[in-house]
Amino acid sequence: MAKKESNFINMVLALFIVTASASFILATVYNLTAEPIAQAREAKRQFAISQVVPEFDRLESKNFLPPGGGDSLEFNFAFLNDELVGIAVNTWTNRGYSGRITAMVGFDTQGNIVDVVHLQHAETPGLGDKIEKGKSDWSDQFKGLDPSTADIRVAKDNGDIDAITAATITARAYCDAIQRAYDTFKEHFLSHQPQTEEGGLEL
Q1: Distance CA 62, CA 81 (A)
Q2: From start to end of 108-166, where are the E strands?
Q3: How much is the mean pLDDT over the chain?
Q4: Residue 129 dihedral angles phi and psi, to the nearest 5°
Q5: Domain map of the chain by residue range?
Q6: How many CB atoms neighbour CB 112 within 10 A?
Q7: How far is Cα 59 from Cα 70, in angstroms, rounded to an integer?
Q8: Do residues 111 and 186 lie in contact, with contact meaning Cβ atoms separated by under 8 Å?
Q9: What pLDDT is attached to residue 98?
Q10: Full DSSP string of 58-92
Q11: Are 149 and 106 within 8 A, CB to CB?
Q12: Confidence bin at 33 (pLDDT 50/70/90)
């Protein structure tokens, strides 16, 4: 009986040591990689902002809830010499073929789209991934659009956007993300903020 008890204690002790060692290793790896991952994520965010708004020397960021509910959207206000030159909105949609798609949408101070870039997605390679600028020029059709007059839906839904061949679901979802960005922009700014003589935002 004593031998069995001893073996049981040894097994429990060995299991404890293995578990504690694994936890220590995981914690160490996390601590070593957390900061580089955060830095890489921030660098990607900064690059995306620079792609969708004019040149700037200062950013101010604030989160706003979209009119339809759901996760808040990050608004990045870009200033040059203390003058607002554009607003980059980190937006999302859950309607992608393979789940959530996030994108950065840039607006000028009149609410026109400057440009859009994807941030993250899991769409089908060779089809849905054509939302990436490096894979196709499909997203260029959003440049310069005025969402107050353009219909940000795919042509199959009677909108003004050409769908991606064999990836209509992805194209439809991307339009949804862009429309969400504009609806939030309109809700919080175009409807309430003072306007300049040229019709732009005055923050």
Answers
A1: 20
A2: 113-120
A3: 87
A4: -75, 0
A5: 1-50, 53-190
A6: 18
A7: 25
A8: yes
A9: 96
A10: EEEEEEE--TT-SS-EEEEEEEETTEEEEEEEEEE
A11: no
A12: low
> Which two three-digit tokens encode residue 116?
């859009």
pLDDT digits (tens, 9 = 90+) for 148-192: 999 999 999 999 999 999 999 999 999 999 999 999 999 988 765
Cβ atoms < 10 Å from Cβ of 25: 10
- 52-62 residue pLDDT tens: 999 999 999 99
Are 111 and 148 in contact by the 8 Å Cβ rule? The answer is: yes
Contact 142, 66 (CB under 8 A): no
Statement: the pTM of the whole predicted model exceeds 0.70: yes
> What length does the chain have?
203
Q: Buried b vs exposed e over 59-87: b needs ≥16 C-beta within 10 Å?
A: eeeeeeebeeeeeebbbbbbeeeeebbbb
Looking at the DSSP bridge assignments, the partners of residue 91 are 103
